[in-house]
Task: structure prediction
Amino acid sequence: MGGRESFLFSVLLLVACAQKAPSAPGDAAVSPNRDAPAEMAGVMAPPGDPEEAIRSEFAHVERRGTAEAYALFAERHPGHPLAKEAARRAAALRRGNP
Result:
């Protein structure tokens, strides 16, 4: 095979492998998480705690310590109590009084 034919064969082989159907219902190929227990096949994990995620993001913003980071946090979470603190800190940093 020449260069072009070899390339096309490789592409076709990749497409064929990617589209391989599972051999039976409940086959491991159905679940993207092969470490999940069999009874959980195809089931997504429950979402994490949103409050914890916001607090973690705020901690990251504190480590950065920039007016821009605080302002972005305040824009992303306008209804959260930490947004007011983030906006206050952003304004203080812009004024030069951290």
Q: What stands out?
A: The chain has a mean pLDDT of 79. The chain has four helices and no strands. The helical segments are 3-18, 50-64, 67-76, 81-95. The CA atoms of residues 25 and 41 lie 11 Å apart.
